[in-house]
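Need a sequence for this fold. Nothing fancy.
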């Protein structure tokens, strides 16, 4: 008697951590590759069909399309906070004219602004590290402002510009007004809005 048939194997091709949409948390996963085989006496002989790989959560045992590995809202939020806090630190320090080292007073200002806008803490060491690693390159900073602006609400953009101006020594020099205007432009703010904010600081 010859026993012939088919069955599907589910080989594990990789493992790791991912954000499980059902568990709403980070969990271990197995990436499986289902494959249909023709077998003789239960020994796989002929590969017949390979199916789409899928992600299996070790927690809830849910199965998800492989693209789920690219979605991590926790990491995305952390990246957003890191990127925007760096940008805010850079524009405030450049507006204050403190390029090489950050004074304790300005460090406190930056930390307070990051706390107000992002609701996170940015320690003095992190602020100093930002300025020591490319924070003095004006064009790079403005390019970063433009990049992060896509993630900010209109209110967030307004708060960034106001935080930058608050770091400057008053009255504003022409160079600082020009820099502030460029920051507002890169943030995507309307020219009239930027002019209005500048006018407020000119009268304070």
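Here you go.
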């Amino acid at each position: 008697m010859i026993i012939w048939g088919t069955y599907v194997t589910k080989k594990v091709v990789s493992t790791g951590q991912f954000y499980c949409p059902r568990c709403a948390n980070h969990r271990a996963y197995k990436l499986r590759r289902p494959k249909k085989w023709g077998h003789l006496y239960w020994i796989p002989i002929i590969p017949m069909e390979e199916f789409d790989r899928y992600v299996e959560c070790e927690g809830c045992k849910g199965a998800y399309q492989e693209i789920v590995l690219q979605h991590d809202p926790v990491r995305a939020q952390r990246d957003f906070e890191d990127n925007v806090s760096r940008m805010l630190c850079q524009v405030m320090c450049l507006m204050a004219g403190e390029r090489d080292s950050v004074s304790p007073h300005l460090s406190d200002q930056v930390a307070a602004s990051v706390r107000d806008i992002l609701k996170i803490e940015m320690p003095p060491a992190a602020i100093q590290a930002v300025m020591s690693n490319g924070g003095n390159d004006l064009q790079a900073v403005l390019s970063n402002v433009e990049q992060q602006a896509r993630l900010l609400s209109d209110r967030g953009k307004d708060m960034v510009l106001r935080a930058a101006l608050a770091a400057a020594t008053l009255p504003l020099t022409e160079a600082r007004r020009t820099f502030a205007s460029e920051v507002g432009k890169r943030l995507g703010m309307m020219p009239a809005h930027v002019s209005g904010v500048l006018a407020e600081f000119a009268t304070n």
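For context: The chain is about 50% helix and 25% strand.
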